[in-house]
Inverse folding.
C-alpha cells in the first residue's frame, strides 16, 4: 500500500472525515471495477460500491492493518455483492445479466502490451461475463484479485472446498471458451 | 494413466498456477500426453490474461464518488439525529423517573406524618 494511502487510512481511523473522503476518491474506481466484474452490470455495481463504503466507514476502526486496505475493501465488496445478489434474487427473481455489455476499460499502462493483448482481454471479459455468477465470483476474486481460498469462502459464505470446486469449473469453462483444443472445437461445431 | 475430466481440469489448472506439484505418476502422464501439455499451456495463458485484468480499471465516472460520500453523510446525519433523539429520550426518562421517585417520597412522608 502506498504510504499516502496508509496515512489516509490511519487518519480516517482516528475520525478524520477529510481523510476518509480522500480514501474514497483514491479507491472507488478499483472498487467499482471489482463490483462490476462480480455483478456483471453497472447499476448493481454502483449499488454495491455505495454499500461497500458505508460498511467500510462504519467498520474502519476495526481494520487492523494486517492486510492491505485495498484487500480489506475487496473482501467487503465480495460480501456486499453476494448480499446484493441474494436480495435481487429474493425480490425480483431475475438473473444477473450474464451477457451484459462490457464497457471498454481504460488502459493506462504499457501501450505495447496493450496492443498485443487487447483482443484476448476483450474476449476474456466477455467470457467472464458469460459465466454463471457463482463461478464468476470465485475466479475473479482468486485469479484477478489474488484473494486466498479461505477469504473467498468466508465472504461468499461457502466452504473452502466449494470455493475450490467452483474455481476449477470456472477456469475450465474459460479455458474451453478462449482456447478450445481441436476436439473441443469440433464438438462445438456439431 | 487416464484422468477423469474433473480431476484432470483441477490438476492442470492448479499445476498452471503453481499451487500443486504433480506427483510422479501424474507427472509421467502429463509429460507423455500431448493433450495434457496443450491444455496446461492454455491454462497458463488464461491465468496470465486473468492477472493482466488486475491492472485494468473500469471508470465509473467521478459522480459515483460524490454519491458515495453523500450517502455516508446521510448515514452520519441519521446516526446524529438518532443520537439526539436517544439522548432526549434518556433525559426525559431520567426526569420522569426522578419526578416519580420524588412524588413517592413526598407521599410517603405525608402518610408518615
Amino acid at each position: 500500500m502506498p504510504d499516502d494511502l496508509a496515512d489516509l487510512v490511519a487518519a480516517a481511523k482516528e475520525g478524520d472525515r477529510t481523510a476518509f473522503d480522500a480514501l474514497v476518491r483514491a479507491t472507488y474506481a478499483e472498487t467499482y471495477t471489482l463490483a462490476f466484474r462480480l455483478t456483471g452490470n453497472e447499476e448493481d455495481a454502483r449499488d454495491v460500491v455505495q454499500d461497500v463504503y458505508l460498511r467500510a466507514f462504519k467498520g474502519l476502526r476495526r481494520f487492523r492493518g494486517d492486510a492491505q486496505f485495498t484487500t480489506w475493501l475487496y473482501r467487503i465488496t465480495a460480501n456486499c455483492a453476494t448480499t446484493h445478489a441474494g436480495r435481487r434474487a429474493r425480490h425480483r427473481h431475475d438473473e444477473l445479466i450474464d451477457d451484459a455489455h462490457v464497457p471498454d476499460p481504460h488502459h493506462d499502462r504499457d501501450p505495447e502490451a496493450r496492443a498485443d493483448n487487447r483482443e484476448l482481454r476483450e474476449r476474456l471479459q466477455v467470457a467472464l461475463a458469460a459465466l454463471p455468477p457463482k463461478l464468476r465470483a470465485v475466479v475473479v476474486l482468486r485469479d484477478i484479485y489474488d484473494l486466498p481460498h479461505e477469504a473467498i469462502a468466508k465472504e461468499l459464505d461457502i466452504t473452502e472446498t466449494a470455493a475450490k470446486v467452483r474455481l476449477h469449473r470456472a477456469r475450465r469453462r474459460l479455458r474451453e471458451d478462449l482456447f478450445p483444443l481441436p476436439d473441443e472445437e469440433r464438438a462445438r461445431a456439431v | 494413466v487416464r484422468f477423469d475430466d474433473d480431476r484432470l481440469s483441477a490438476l492442470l489448472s492448479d499445476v498452471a498456477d503453481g499451487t500443486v506439484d504433480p506427483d510422479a505418476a501424474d507427472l509421467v502422464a502429463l509429460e507423455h500426453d500431448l493433450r495434457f501439455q496443450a491444455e496446461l499451456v492454455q491454462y497458463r495463458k488464461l491465468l496470465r490474461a486473468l492477472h493482466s485484468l488486475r491492472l485494468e480499471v473500469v471508470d465509473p465516472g467521478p459522480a459515483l464518488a460524490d454519491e458515495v460520500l453523500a450517502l455516508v453523510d446521510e448515514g452520519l446525519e441519521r446516526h446524529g439525529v438518532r443520537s439526539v433523539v436517544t439522548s432526549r429520550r434518556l433525559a426525559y426518562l431520567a426526569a420522569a423517573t426522578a419526578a416519580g421517585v420524588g412524588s413517592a417520597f413526598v407521599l410517603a412522608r405525608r402518610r408518615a406524618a
